[in-house]
Sequence to fold (441 residues):
Amino acid sequence: MTENPIQPSVSSSGLGDPCQWLQQWVCENLFANLPVSVAVIDRERRIVKANFIFEQKFGPFSGRRCFEAYKHRPTPCEKCRALEIFRDGKTRHSYERGIDRSEAPIDYLMHMTPISGGDGGAEVHYVLQTAMDITPWAQQEQEYRLFYEHAPCTIAVLDRDFRIVRGNRRLSTLFGKRLGRRCFEVFKNLPEKCLECPAERTFQDGGIYHAMQTGQTQEGKVTHYLVTSAPLLQSENGVEQVIELSMDLTQERILETEVGKLRAIQESLIENSHCGIMAFDENGRVILFNPELANLLQRSREEIHSLADLRSHLPPILMQVLQEGLEACLMSTIPIRSQNGEEIPIRFTNIRLKMGDVFLGYASFFEDLREIKKLEKDKLDAERLAAVGQTVAGIAHGVKNIMMGLEGGLYVVKSASKKQDPKLAEEGWRMLENNIMKISA
Fold:
């Protein structure tokens, strides 16, 4: 039978009392082999003994005092717990932050135990300090607290009665301090649980669920948020606590609504425009082809996939403009051909589409000029008729003036004949001669 090397039998070792031997072994071996920093300080707070782990963490201990070794301080700590132990002999625990031998911050849990003298008296001669390095956990806790308090969402921990048992700062800012109240009362001002409750589903099966919710802030403003529920604390009875993360999407929902309105307006304008509109990307793929252009070319939208499908309708120069993507190109009048062979005069405009510095493609506008051309022809015909009318009116007016002149001259001649007035007759004949000359001219 193999004997325990830590506790050999009295008969085999010959060491006498096994308890005395064990105490001696602990003093000689356990101190050095503990996986934590161990140091013993005297009443002057000088380190009189320390283990290997201590020197690994805080450097050599010889001649140093505890505040110099742990915190690199030249003077004792303001609230020295070791000094209190020397006074009252009570064990103490504390969380400390110090500096290790490489000048890096270190977080540790300190356990301090009084060591009385060997004379059996109550006076404390030494203090045993055990320091457990918790730097990684302290950093994780700090990161967790930073995330928890400053996360861009509300965080609430719910119990099985849907009461909020813990919440972050954003929860208090938006909904007030509502610990102990039910989530549906806080978030939605409702008297009973929501019909679609992701937290309830998490309590039932321990799954992670998402849901869009609408609620009210403490000022009464409507909020829209995305809720994610996940199990936080579980026991043999199931999920005991659920954590809910609510991302406020109110502004996004408002923007989404506004963008939806703008898009509806744009689509309505494009679909009902009296101008043919086409948009295509840099590869010539048609991405927009409105009804007016389809009606103009007598082609359906489903038939037009790329610029190549328009070759039979557009003249070569226009195809070249489209393929080269000339920016801000304007052609006042150019003919295109419909599916039934009709030539249609149009005004053509081509522009580049950009979003900031990102190139999106091109947009082309085809304005049907048939009505305008017809109006121009009608106007020209009307102007010609007006010119003829003006000419006829002028001729009629001239003829009328001559006739009146002839009638006047004839009247004067007749009057002179009756009166036997040669002078008056001569004047009448002169009037007749003048009007006859106008006719011959």
In short: Residues 151-253 form a domain with the Beta-Lactamase fold (CATH 3.30.450.20). The chain is about 40% helix and 30% strand. The chain has four domains: 15-135, 151-253, 267-368, 391-440. Confidence is low (pLDDT under 50) at residues 1-15.
